[in-house]
Amino acid sequence: MNIIRNLYRILGIGFTLTSVKPSIDRLRFSKSSNSPRFTRIKLFKEIISIWWKLSKQRKSVENIDSFVFSQGTGHEFRKLFINHYKEQVDNVIYSFDNDLQYYTKLDVNKKMSIFKLTIRYAFMCLSTRLEFEHYWLVKTYRYLTQVELLKGECIDFYMFYAYLPESYITSIYLSETLKEKVYCCVSSSTMSNINRYFNCPNLELILCSKYQVYEHDYFRRLSWHNVKNVSLWGLEELEAVESLVPQESEFDIGIYSSAEWARKEGLFRKSDIEIVEAQVYKETNAYIIFEKILKTVVALLDSFPELRIVIYPHPFERKLINKYNLYPPYYDWVKEVGIEFNLEGKSSLKSIYKSKIGVGQFSTILMDRWHLGLKGFVYSTQDKIYNGAQVINREYIGEYDKYCYSSLEELKIKLEKELLNA
Questions:
Q1: In the beta sheet, which residues pair with residue 256?
Q2: Which of 21, 25, 134, 385 lies in the 20 to 30 Å Cα band around 325?
Q3: Cβ count near 122 (within 10 Å)
């Protein structure tokens, strides 16, 4: 709490429990067990070093209409999404996680403003007990200094991935500073877990799926969401979605994997292939539950022998298979019982109409199915599977509660009902 309180203070943002809670809420995934002094000193030096490096790598541009914090996603992906729902904008800057920053006018006042922010920010990192991993503090600093460079210009700002700490803190700073022309997209993430609180009264919140409308409305009634305006745009993968053509289903049930066996705590993708190959994360609660879901679906073959089942591996699993020939631990077993393993394309989105029913533990593509009017069953439980986090809460999602299950028995009953009524 102290580090968020101090961060709000140096930015001149009013500190209240309502305003600080979102940031704390977003940090639950990266909580650290300790904060040795050398880490704080290292972070202090890193902030000063970044300031010096960025001061030498600023790019002058003219006629900026919009600035998009792309956060690692290709600018064409974001450009298509924004231009589809907003008027065509030509002069757009897409910022990535690199060492390049942009400005239109750079005078002494702006330089001093950034310098003061840097000093206060660095000393905050040095003097405050670091309760969490510090990488998000570095990214937040980059975003905030970029905002300072463009502050005062007539520019629309777009933030994506509202669930990230750096996105939320920058959004609230923009909201407090500019009072208008600030947009923050929640992206594909459920708001049940890490977007329950959103206190940005001068910002337009962009929703990407129909079920998020129910979430927002629920949180608004509780005064957990406080924004100027809210708009439902649509699924972010616009190009892929627009190419979809409704078709006759080839399978009765499509099971969507989230590659829990290859992700730390079932959530974080690991680049260390040796660890993935050793299946270190196979014993996590997230993967154990996925296997039980898989076996529950396959057991339906006893009652429905003609049942057509397919598994759609996660994009991370597709990469592991295609690049490293690493198959998931369940692969041999499902092939033995005659379940198809679909590796078409880079993701499962293009095959979304091929299955009548979708099943998984928690995968955003299941909510994508809801948005497109398709059925998809999601695991909703009070048990906090992913590193102490409850991913989706059926209480918040209105009519889509019918597609949630809180036990394997409930999943079995709901699937049997769907199959009998087909």
A1: 312, 360
A2: 385
A3: 20
How far apart CA 331 and CA 4 sit, in angstroms, is 44
Best CA proximity match to 394, nearest among 209, 211, 185, 222: 211
Cβ pair 292, 407 in contact under 8 A:
no
β-pairing, 309-312 vs 251-256, is parallel
Rounded Cα distance, 380 and 358, in Å: 15
CA 58 to chain centre: 29
Residue reference for tokens 């972010």 = 236
Give the DSSP H/E element, type plus range, for residue 233.
Answer: none
pLDDT in tens, the chain (422 residues): 455 666 666 666 554 444 444 444 444 434 444 456 667 888 889 999 999 998 888 888 888 888 888 766 667 788 888 888 887 667 788 776 567 888 888 899 999 999 999 998 888 888 766 555 677 888 889 999 999 998 888 888 999 888 788 888 888 888 888 766 889 998 887 887 665 778 888 889 999 999 999 999 999 998 888 899 999 999 988 888 888 888 889 999 999 998 877 776 544 455 567 666 666 667 777 888 889 999 999 999 999 999 999 999 988 888 888 888 888 888 888 888 889 998 887 778 889 999 999 999 888 899 999 999 999 999 987 655 544 445 788 889 999 999 999 999 999 999 999 999 87
As a whole number of angstroms, the distance between CA 187 and CA 208 comes to 6
Q: d(Cα 38, Cα 36) in Å, to the nearest integer?
A: 6
Query: DSSP letters of 361-372?
Result: SS-HHHHHHHHT
Task: Mark 348-368 as b/e (b = at least 16 C-beta within 10 Å).
Answer: bbbbbbbbbbbbbbbbbbbbb
pTM for this predicted structure = 0.85
Q: Is 140 within 8 Å of 11 (Cβ atoms)?
A: no
Q: How far apart are CA 227 and CA 198, in angstroms?
A: 7
Tally of CB atoms within 10 A around 2: 12
CB count, 10 Å around CB of 279?
14
Contacts of 198 (CB under 8 A, 6+ apart): 22, 162, 168, 191, 205, 219, 224, 225, 226, 227
Q: Which of 185, 224, 221, 218 is nearest to 203 (CA)?
A: 185
